[in-house]
Design the sequence.
C-alpha cells in the first residue's frame, strides 16, 4: 500500500433491521483517518442516515487509494437487500444479503483489497430461520478462510480469549481436549506476538471448575487435561500461569502478571470484561489470515430505527483495526 494512502477497512452493517446500519453512519461521521468501505446496501445506509438525522455522502468504491476522508463520507460496495428492512423486525429473506456481505469482506481482505474488516452485529436466529446453518461471525470467517481461530474480546485494560465459544454449558467439558486447548494456546501466543507486539506473551489460563478443581475434589479436568497441556507448552518456552480459579483471576494483583487470559467458556470471563468496559470492548478473531474486529454487543432491536444507539463499541473496533493494520504494515516494511 502507498504509505500516504489511508488504510482501506471493509465495514459490514450486520443485521439490516438492527442498529448496525445506524452505527455505521455514526462511524462515518467521525474524523478517523481510514478509507472506510461499507459492504452493504446503499438504500439501507441512506435510510439509516435519515433516521439518525445525519447527512451521508456515499461514493461507489473503485478500489483506489485515497489520502483524505471527510467526516460524513463513506465509500460503498453495494450488496442489495432481499427486501427493504423494517427496524426491529429481522426478516429471513435478508439472510443471503448478510452472508454475502461477510463473504465479500473476507474475500476482499484475503485478496489484498482491504487491510481489515470491521463487523456490526448480526442476528444469528434470522439466518437460521432462513434454513442456513450459521453459528456466528467467528465460525463463518474461520470456514471461509479455512483457518483455526480463537475468539478474543479486548478492552484497553484486559484481553480475554475463549477456549470454547457458542456452546451449551453442558457441552463444554467434553469439548476441552488436550488437542483443542493446545491449539488455542498456540494461536493466542502467536497472535499476541504478531498482532499485539508482545515479545514473550504472558498468558493466564483459567481452570474449568470452581477453585480450578481443588486438586481433583471439584472435578478432574484440570488434572487430566489442562495442567498436562500447560506443562508441555512451558517446556517449549511458553510463559503460562495457572490454571487459576476464575473467581480471583481478575483481581488487580493478578492482572499485572499477565497479558491475556484464556477462559474455558463464554460466560466464565466475559461478564467481568463487559461490566467494566462495555463501550470500549472489541471482539477479535485470532488466527485468521486477515484482521477482523467487531462490536461486543448484539443487534439491539429495541433501539433499531431510533437513531439513538451508542456507536462507541464500533468506533473502538475501527480504532483497534487501524492499530493492528499499522503494526502489520510496520512489520512488512
Sequence:
Amino acid at each position: 500500500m502507498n504509505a500516504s494512502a489511508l488504510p482501506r477497512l471493509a465495514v459490514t452493517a450486520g443485521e439490516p433491521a438492527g442498529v448496525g446500519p445506524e452505527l455505521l453512519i455514526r462511524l462515518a461521521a467521525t474524523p478517523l483517518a481510514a478509507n472506510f468501505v461499507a459492504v452493504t446496501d446503499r438504500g439501507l445506509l441512506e435510510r439509516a442516515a435519515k433516521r439518525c438525522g445525519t447527512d451521508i455522502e456515499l461514493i461507489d468504491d473503485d478500489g483506489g487509494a485515497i489520502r483524505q476522508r471527510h467526516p460524513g463520507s463513506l465509500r460503498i460496495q453495494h450488496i442489495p437487500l432481499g427486501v427493504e428492512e423494517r427496524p426491529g423486525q429481522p426478516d429471513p429473506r435478508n439472510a443471503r444479503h448478510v452472508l454475502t456481505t461477510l463473504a465479500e469482506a473476507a474475500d476482499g481482505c484475503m485478496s489484498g483489497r482491504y487491510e481489515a474488516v470491521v463487523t456490526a452485529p448480526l442476528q444469528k436466529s434470522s439466518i437460521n430461520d432462513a434454513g442456513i446453518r450459521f453459528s456466528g461471525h467467528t465460525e463463518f470467517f474461520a470456514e471461509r478462510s479455512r483457518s483455526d481461530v480463537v475468539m478474543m474480546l479486548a478492552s484497553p485494560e484486559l484481553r480475554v480469549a475463549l477456549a470454547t465459544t457458542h456452546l451449551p454449558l453442558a457441552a463444554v467439558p467434553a469439548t476441552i481436549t488436550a488437542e483443542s486447548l493446545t491449539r488455542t494456546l498456540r494461536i493466542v501466543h502467536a497472535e499476541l506476538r504478531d498482532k499485539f507486539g508482545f515479545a514473550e506473551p504472558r498468558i493466564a489460563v483459567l481452570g474449568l471448575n470452581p477453585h480450578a478443581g481443588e486438586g481433583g475434589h471439584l472435578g478432574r479436568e484440570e488434572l487430566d487435561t489442562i495442567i498436562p497441556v500447560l506443562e508441555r507448552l512451558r517446556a517449549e518456552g511458553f510463559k503460562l500461569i495457572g490454571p487459576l480459579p476464575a473467581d480471583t483471576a481478575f483481581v488487580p494483583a493478578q492482572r499485572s502478571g499477565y497479558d491475556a487470559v484464556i477462559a474455558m467458556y463464554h460466560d466464565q470471563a466475559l461478564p467481568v470484561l463487559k461490566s467494566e468496559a462495555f463501550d470500549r470492548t472489541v471482539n477479535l478473531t485470532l488466527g485468521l489470515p486477515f484482521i477482523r474486529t467487531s462490536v461486543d454487543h448484539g443487534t439491539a432491536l429495541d433501539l433499531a430505527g431510533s437513531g439513538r444507539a451508542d456507536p462507541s463499541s464500533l468506533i473502538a473496533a475501527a480504532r483497534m483495526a487501524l492499530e493492528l493494520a499499522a503494526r502489520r504494515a510496520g512489520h512488512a516494511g
